[in-house]
Amino acid sequence: MYNRTMKKTIGVFFGSRNPEHDVSIITGQLIISGLKGLGYTVVPIYLDKKGAWYIGERYSQIAHFTSGDNTHRDDAQWYLDMEYSHGKMVFKKKGFAGKTVTIDLAFPAFHGQNGEDGTFQGLCEMVNIPYVGCDVASSAVTMDKVMTKQLYQAAHIPTTEFVSFSKDEWIKDKNAILAEIEKKLHLPVIVKPARLGSSIGISKARTKQDLEFAVDVACHYDTKVIVEVCIENLMDVTCCVIGNDTLTPSKLQESVFGDDVFSYENKYLDDGGAQLGKSKNNIIIPARLDEKTTKKIQDTALAAYRLVGCSGIARVDFLYDRNTQKLYANEINTLPGTIYHHLWKASGIELPELLTKLVQYAEEKYDSKEKITHVFQSDILKHADSSKMKLKGI
Q: pTM of the entire structure?
């Protein structure tokens, strides 16, 4: 059983091999600073763009990443010692008599592939360590926009019509795919890499020529592409959810943007960044919706969260058609940028309380899992030499 009373060391993991690497650094810095303010022992663990591990206090300073000198390249790399990583993560520094760091609880701050997609969560499960946020399955499913929408359809949660295909299928017969899009959807459409976030590689296509170019761009970032119906009179609405069994929805955020899509620049650069909660001109909290519609969106967010088995925290995005007043569930983000602390603050939960809750949810989830029987006594090996059990060539 995990000992909640012990003085824990929390590892904050950020960076990794994906196009959202830099956003992850910002989220990591926020979490590190916040946890230190709560009195936790915090270890910053940075994965560079090649997947190398670096550990040290310098990685808790944003200036280290903005100075441009990339001094971490001169640091000794670390590795996860699987021999001793049981119920904890033990990292050792490369080199003779290398230093050792032990992590009791993992707080991932990854965005996108190789971190938010269930890969890191699977590592935590293998070494049996508590970790913040969603589990392997929910992280993997929500990373794939196609799978998410297929689950929505199965559960009768409204979502926009779409067509999906692989990069290989596009190369082999793009004309057939274009014909399917033309038959099932109508221009303009939104084209996205299926397993990427932060609006990277997303385009709005108004013509067939635009569409071909947009798909080529999406294929540059992923081997799977999704093309969706475009909502022209769009209100982009977000609802965050926290909790394991007992869930709490946030207020609704309305994101205002003038481009064809809510771009990377809108989210992170323009006027301080809407997704970072700093753009006063681009975000409106609460969203300009009536009480009934607000409640409907919050309830749908809770339903989506439960549908894919989320835990800890997630952000559910919605498309609202102002003309028809129809609501469409869009993407689920299991590790929202800067854990969307600005929306939780507007909802009455300050960052220290939010971080405390997320650590507690991680501990609760771990304790619940540990109560399950993981061992099954079997006599199957005793009969392995019998004629029925023998395998050819063994």
A: 0.89
